């Protein structure tokens, strides 16, 4: 199986490069994948046409055209599109249905898996406390202890408050691109240490199971 994996930013790509190897395990040589980062999540076009300037590389804005293109280019191959996005403050069921509506509008339809990190991708990193503290031995445990897994709480800010000097307030003062660089650093340092089986994030486990199902991997 070949996977075309669309993520909303570079930090997501960095994290998944480590995580996918672990999910696929001994079967990883039987599969290929390409992880494509975008420059933000954006919004689903109301007419499902996706007319936004492609040079801006905003994921949801481009998604209708992307899926229509994949439907044509992948129809003769054992391949799947995987769309990984943050929930942020959206209603999860409504958001997923909106993405499914885009897929329903495609003819032919590519095999597609939609997966949503709740609330943000950093929740998947926080799902393994040991990986966080090994990567950042000086992480503030009192902050980590206040995190309720997969809650809507300002997830990246929570991780920043635990591991970044000056916390989320400092990063917000610095602005872009410093926050993006910090997220990439967290992904680079924590993701390789994740125990995918023990990860406490339910949205992460749903992602893992979806990939394994597409790959035909049966967990022992």
Describe this structure in words.
The protein is an alpha/beta fold and 220 residues long. It has two domains: 137 residues, Rossmann fold, CATH 3.40.50; 71 residues, no CATH class. The chain is built from ten helices and four strands. It has a four-stranded parallel sheet with strand order 2-1-3-4, sandwiched between helices. Helix 1 runs parallel beside helix 9 and helix 7 crosses helix 8. The longest helix has 15 residues.
Instruction: Count structural domains.
Output: 2
Number of helices: 10
Largest sheet data: 4 strands, parallel
State the helical fraction.
40-55%
Structural class: alpha/beta
Report the principal-axis shape: globular
| Straight-line distance between termini | 20 Å
CATH topology of the largest domain: Rossmann fold
Q: Which spans have pLDDT < 50 for at least 5 consecutive residues?
A: none
Element-by-element helix/strand order: EHEHEHEHHHHHHH
What CATH architecture of the largest domain would you give?
Answer: 3-Layer(aba) Sandwich
Whole-angstrom Rg: 17 Å
Can you give keywords for this protein?
2 domains, alpha/beta, single chain, 220 residues, globular, Rossmann fold
Short summary of the structure?
By secondary structure, this protein is of the alpha/beta class.
Would you spell out the secondary-structure blueprint of this structure?
Layout: E1 2-7, H1 10-24, E2 32-37, H2 59-73, E3 79-86, H3 92-104, E4 112-117, H4 122-126, H5 129-135, H6 141-144, H7 155-163, H8 167-174, H9 178-190, H10 202-215
Parallel strand pairs: 1-2, 1-3, 3-4
Helix pairs in contact: 1-9, 7-8
């Amino acid at each position: 199986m070949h996977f075309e994996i669309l993520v909303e930013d570079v930090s997501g790509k960095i994290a998944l490069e480590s995580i996918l190897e672990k999910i696929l395990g001994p079967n990883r040589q039987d599969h290929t994948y390409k992880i494509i980062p975008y420059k933000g999540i954006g919004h689903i076009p109301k007419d499902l046409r996706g007319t936004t300037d492609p040079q801006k590389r905003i994921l949801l804005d481009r998604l209708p055209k992307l899926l229509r293109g994949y439907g044509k280019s992948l129809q003769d191959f054992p391949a799947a599109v995987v769309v990984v996005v943050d929930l942020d403050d959206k209603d999860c069921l409504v958001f997923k249905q909106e993405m499914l509506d885009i897929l329903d509008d495609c003819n032919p339809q590519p095999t597609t898996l939609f997966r949503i990190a709740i609330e943000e991708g950093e929740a998947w990193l926080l799902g393994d406390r040991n990986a966080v503290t090994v990567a950042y031995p000086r992480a503030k445990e009192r902050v980590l202890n206040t995190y309720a897994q997969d809650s809507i709480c300002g997830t990246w800010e929570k991780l920043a408050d635990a591991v970044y000097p000056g916390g989320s307030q400092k990063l917000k003062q610095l602005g872009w691109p410093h926050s993006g660089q910090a997220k990439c650093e967290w992904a680079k340092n924590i993701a390789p240490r994740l125990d995918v089986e023990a990860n406490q994030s339910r949205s992460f486990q749903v992602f893992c199971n979806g990939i394994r199902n597409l790959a035909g991997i049966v967990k022992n």
